[in-house]
Design a protein that fits this description.
The chain is mainly alpha-helical and 112 residues long. It has one domain. The protein contains five helices and no strands. Helix 2 packs parallel to helix 4. The longest helix has 24 residues. It starts with a helix and ends with a helix.
Length: 112
Amino acid sequence: MTIAEFKDKLIEDGVKSVLKREAREARRRGGVAGFELCRMLETPGDFDKLLTERHAEETELQRQHIDAEEYWEYRMATIQIEFVWERMKVAWRLPGPWSASAAIHYHDIVGE
């Protein structure tokens, strides 16, 4: 399995999981959006840049005391990007530490 195929599988499985398990509409939209955003991320630098931007925006959203649904839609997208990023660090063999969950998940999919 190539790294691109691995990432695609993470995204496809992630979208299915969010649609199946998340009952709250805003969180469902955010979760799917987060996985879909990962499709355009090709390098570790892409993930790092997007997550840095999103974390800064989340801080600003909290400061502004925006509507909870709007915040959670945004936050759920970020959570899914973080989920894919943790697993891609394993796939790319980036220096650790890796989360145990990500390493096990990678092994379950790829078999290495």
